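User: Second chain of the day. Same drill as before.
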Amino acid sequence: MTEGRSSNEYFASPAVVHDSQALTAWLTTLVRNRESGTLADLRRAKTRTNAHVRAGWYGGDDHRDLFERMAFLFATYHQGRTTPSYGHGSLGAAARRIGDGIARGPDNPGAQRLVDRIVASRRIPWRHLQHTVTRLRSCDQAPPSWTQLTDDLIRWHDRTARIAYMWTVEFHAPPAGGRTTRNGTTTRKDPTT
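Assistant: Same format as last time:
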């Protein structure tokens, strides 16, 4: 042992930070390479498998469990799919895509109830997030950005981030290019004005 150093300094490892982009890249590679066994392992929520442990590595010391659960959500969405989806937008924007040809997003009572349950949760609402991913899959709609969803959930308890509020705003945002009138119809902006 070298003088001036304690034995604990030799065994101490630097804190590992999280990397949500690397998790998304690894998960999409599993789909692209058709590693259905590993994806099936990730869908086993009750049992910790080697695939869960590997997903947890990307979460670092502080977010291991969250990254394992995100891998579960990803694998649930991609069950039976051969093309990976990186997703886009926040969970609120993705929930706007839930529904059928008649009503989507805020106009769909089921999507509205689901978002209400999610944003009212003090803890991360894993069960409702799973339901959201399942609904998006069944509607054949793109999921939220997996990287952004992971980062949002890391900041779920940060009051200054206001993640639930931002998801609500994005869910209820009026359609792009139009404005909503009092009776709820959307009008297009006249290009001459």
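Confidence is low (pLDDT under 50) at residues 10-14, 180-193.

User: Great, on to the next one.
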